[in-house]
Amino acid sequence: MTEQLQIGSDEPVQADVARWRAEFALADGVAMLNPGGFGTVPRRVTTAIRRLQDRIESDPVDFHVRRYAPEMAAAMEPVQRFLGAPAGSTAFVGNATMAMNVVAAAIPLRLGDEVLATAVEYGSVADLWRRRCTIAGARWTEVADDGDLDGDLLLERLAAAKGPRTRLVVVSQLTSSTASVLPVAGIAAWCRSEGLLCVVDGAHAPGHLPVDVAAIGADAWLGNLHKWALSGRPAAVLHVGERLAHVAPVVRSWFSDDPDLLTRFSIPGTIDPSTWLTARVGLELWDELDAEGAWAHGADLLDGLAVRLRELWDEDREINRGAALAPRMRAWWLPDATDALQLRKVCADEQVAVWADQVLGRPVLRVGTSAHTRPRDVDRLVALLPTD
Ligand SMILES: Cc1ncc(COP(=O)(O)O)c(C=O)c1O
User: DSSP 3-state assignment of 241?
Assistant: First the structure.
């Protein structure tokens, strides 16, 4: 915050945004309002990745044969702490999709089984489970959702939908399409009491919501580090509890049966491990930005946007009213006549990166902010939105 004191600006946050934005390689003309889409990798992380790659290339055989395992173990330590995961319960995986495939492969479904989920699970995740249900002759059931489900109501609906052959519940910690924060610890506890397995898709959680994997208590939890936790792209973590301790890589390779989970997943053939091994650098920057108020700044921008959208549309169209809001990713029902994909295209043409699509039969706008988001980025989006 020294910059703020030095320049004595009336707009101290703005001054800091310039500095925070300089941590990223974003072009000046880009209004990045979808940082959770693919993540925005900070410069110091890409620098750390390049340095590591240079070090690997200085003696690649020595690195892969002798250095790889201890460096992997050291790289996981800060990640585990950040996520509140018990030692030995996590592995690095390529991305959330791969992690979910691993989990699905570890839960053989039988004819007549049922998998319960919300109606707003991530498209490719829902597709994976649907496919596995089809192959096994099991049933994929989505509980009704109007996008405004609060936690209690969701639990009620899951309980009402549960049948005698329900085996597991798949639920997002922060839904992609509606930016809903779901009460995953409560759902996991309910699953335990009902004898069901609970799989939590925390793809959007690390670096966005407080994550305490141990407290969530799911049988499997997975999350991307590259979306909000400032790692290189891609990097993800899979955590499993006792009931799914037998998970194995879907691409079988060396050590696929190793008792140590991290080792079991660490060599999917020859790979570039640099995003995993530098995850610590992103987490350190995350802490720095947090201490400087950068994440609070991102949340403030969305609070301001919510007020402006109420004025623009003359009504409150926010999804998740009354439910817990994600601080830096929120969603609104667009006016009914809006062609969401066309809006996304119009925005992209203007270098405004934002997510809009048809969700639960209605057009939705999802806006994300980060340390690098400037007030003028939000202004540019608002200028492109339909008024009715
Ligand atoms: C809720 C959710 N699950 C899974 C994924 C898949 O993540 P990835 O493409 O990194 O595998 C995403 C991606 O946006 C997501 O939002």
Answer: coil
The tens digit of pLDDT for each residue in 65-91 reads 999 999 999 999 999 999 999 999 999
Hey, which of 124, 200, 224, 275 would you mutate to test ligand 1's pocket, going by the most ligand atoms within 8 Å of its Cβ? Answer: 224
Domain boundary among 232, 262, 283: 283
Residues 159 and 303 in one domain: no
Q: How many CB atoms lie within 10 A of CB 21?
A: 20
Quick one: which atom of ligand 1 is closest to the CA of 227? 10
What is the CA(127)–ligand 1 centre distance, in A?
A: 12
Q: Which atom of ligand 1 is nearest to the CA of 121?
A: 1
Domain of 13?
3-32+292-384
* CA pseudo-torsion sign 239, 240, 245, 251: negative
Could you tell me the distance, in angstroms and rounded to a whole number, from the CA of residue 368 to the centre of ligand 1? 15
Say how many Å lie between the first and final Cα of the chain, rounded: 41
Q: How far apart are CA 179 and CA 181, in angstroms?
A: 7
What is the number of H-type helices and E-type strands within the chain?
17, 12
What are 285's two structure tokens?
A: 């920057």
Does pTM surpass 0.85?
yes
Model confidence at 1, in pLDDT bands (50, 70, 90)? very low
Distance in angstroms (rounded) separating the CA atoms of residues 177 and 207: 18
Q: How far is the CA of 47 from the centre of ligand 1 (A)?
A: 25
What b/e sequence results for 187-204 when a residue is b if at least 16 CB atoms lie within 10 Å of its CB, and e otherwise?
bbbbbbeeebbbbbbbbb
- Is residue 351 in some structural domain? yes
Q: Are residues 13 and 57 in the same domain?
A: no
Is residue 39 a part of any domain in this protein?
no
Q: How many domains does the chain have?
A: 2
